[in-house]
Amino acid sequence: MNLIFLGPPGAGKGTLSTLAKDAFSLPHLSTGDLFRAAVKNQTPLGLQVKAIMESGGLVPDELTIGIVQEKLAGAEMKAGYILDGFPRTVAQAEALEKFSKIDRVVNFNLEETELVRRLSGRRVCKGCGATYHVDNLPPKTSGVCDSCGGELYTRKDDMPETIAQRLKEYNAKTQPLIDYYSKKGLMLDLDSAPAPGVILEELKKALKK
Ligand code: AMP
Q1: What would the pLDDT profile of 90-115 be if each residue is shown by its tens digit?
Q2: Residue in 71, 117, 155, 204 annotated catalytic
Q3: DSSP alpha helices (H): ranges in the chain?
Q4: Which residue range(s) make up the domain with 204?
Q5: Residue 188 alpha carbon to ligand 1 centre in Å
Q6: Nearest atom (ligand 1) to Cα of 35
Q7: Considering the entire predicted model, what is its pTM?
């Protein structure tokens, strides 16, 4: 089964991908994670996309499409996958159709005030990458990772002005995909407000898993 997880930044696509990949035994490809790893490792790709990501903009379509096409050609993706954060533009969706067949598009819905609250409260460990939230999932000691004792920080793209830009990009470029996939009869709408475990159960029911 080939699944796309769609939704605004902060709707919990990443968290649900982690749960769903285990529940459905599917590999997970997150373009955001892929770009973040490239930036962290200072690869040529990372150097190219760092400033774009930090400003809340989108990486150019040709570059993103090429990377996803290459990843989906890998042997581990042949039996199905969860695509998280791709496609994000109609041009990416049209390109994807040429090299893969999509079974369902899961759209995670959440109102904008809650998206901002979730993104601005997110903290990430510098050491192991574990994610926390100041209200929803606080560490035992403020600013310190429970797992490895590393320092927690706010991702540059979770700063207020960057959040506003990411939401603007989403509304202008990604939201049209809802209509695009609805017309193809592939869309499955889920409410992202409940706890992740509850959303996973809804997803399993909808996909008859
Ligand atoms: P995410 O973690 O999915 O919110 O992605 C973080 C950032 O990576 C985005 O704000 C974009 O700068 C970039 N990015 C991730 N996926 C894509 C994509 N499909 N197209 C363009 N840029 C992307």
Answers
A1: 999 999 999 999 999 999 999 999 99
A2: 155
A3: 13-24, 31-40, 44-55, 61-72, 90-99, 112-120, 160-169, 176-183, 196-207
A4: 2-26+79-111+171-208
A5: 22
A6: 8
A7: 0.92
